Amino acid sequence: MTLGQKLKILLKDNGMTQEDLAERLDVSRQAVGKWVNDKGIPEVGKLVQISNLFGVSLDYLLKENYEVKTVLKGESVSSSGYYVSQEMLDGYLSYSRHNVNQIVGGISLFILSNVFDCFGQTNAIMALLYWITMAAGIIIVIWLFLQTRQYQEIKNEHLTFDDKVFEAFQSQRESRRKKYAVMIIVGVMILLASTEIERLIIIGMGQTAGNVFGWAADTAWMALIIWAGISMHIDSIIMKNAQHAPESGHMRRYRWIYMVLPVTVAAVLIGVISNAWSPYAPIIILFCCLLVTTCKLLIESRGER
Q: Using one digit for the tens of pLDDT, what is the confidence trace for 83-131?
């Protein structure tokens, strides 16, 4: 791959035009056009600037037979695939976390709206807040999945990185995994303890206060678990596609649906019999997961047309 071909890919991946690159490097548009069309080579100083701008090495830019390597489990593995620069990786992670925040925020508002319903439908203000909050949660989730998808190459292609970029990502991923594990543990603790705490609040402060706490607790533990789960999945996509090409047939990703139905039924029965948790909790979790999965399928089908 020539320098010009690599520049075209880097510009496309980063959403930049030749004019943008010329402005960033303080050169003419014609100079960038020559580089992109392999009719000229940038001077050393400009090559260094390009390297820093796109997060790639000088070797990658200059060597036509340069092979990008990824570091997996301490071993260097030569591979050819879709090259991901540091800047593109950071953009993907930022974009994905923004989407996670929207998903969790929308679902949280949808569930939290039941807090206002605890005060009775006769209270006009509370009834209005109930419908506004529920509608806001639904709109946020639907709006997210109607947006144009970005960084699909990272999700669908075999990925290659510079060694240092991938090593840094692995280190950051391990640090994030600890945080996600803590979030899941806290979420499970809230789930297990909320029923008993709600009962005590009902005894001491009344039914309304207990119901309010119950819905607030359900919102908290569900938000923590969903946020951590989706965030871990985002990191796992990069690791999986860096190690090998994605499997053909994206529907295989959704096999979990066939397994989770009996698990949900069992969790509901345990909740009813033992009162260890609210019997509605597994149903709400399943509903939220199916809602997100359905939206993803619709968007993917739309993007393939």
A: 777 878 888 899 889 989 998 898 889 888 888 888 866 778 888 888 8
Q: Are the C-beta atoms of residues 243 and 161 closer than 8 Å to each other?
A: no
Q: Which residue type sits at 32?
A: V
CA proximity to 192, closest of 285, 277, 282: 277
Q: What are the structural domains, with CATH classification, of the chain?
A: 3-66 (1.10.260.40), 86-251 (no CATH)
* 235, containing H or E segment: helix 207-243
Helix (H) or strand (E) holding 162: none
Q: Give the HSE-up count for residue 138: Cα atoms under 13 Å, Cβ half-sphere.
A: 7
The single-letter code of the amino acid at 243 is Q
What is 119-172 written as a DSSP string?
T-TT-HHHHHHHHHHHHHHHHHHHHHHHSPP--HHHHHS-EE--HHHHHHHHHH
What span, in angstroms and rounded, lies between the C-alpha atoms of 243 and 79?
9
With a threshold of 0.85, does the pTM exceed it?
no
Where is 296: in which H helix or E strand? helix 280-304
Contact criterion met (CB below 8 Å) for 134 and 125: no
Phi, psi of 119 (to 5 degrees): -90, 0
Q: Among positive and negative, which fits the CA dihedral 266, 269, 271, 276? A: negative
Contacts with 259 (C-beta within 8 Å, 6 or more apart), sequence order: none
Q: Determine contact, residues 214/198, Cβ cutoff 8 Å.
A: yes
Single-letter residue type at 303: G
- Whether the Cβ atoms of residue 188 and residue 225 lie closer than 8 Å to each other: yes
Q: Which residues are CB-neighbours of 276 under 8 A, at least 6 positions away? A: 192, 195, 270
Tell me if residue 159 falls in helix, strand or coil.
Answer: strand
**Strands 75-78 and 82-83, sheet pairing:** unpaired
Quote the CA–CA distance of 169 and 183 in Å, as a whole number.
Answer: 21
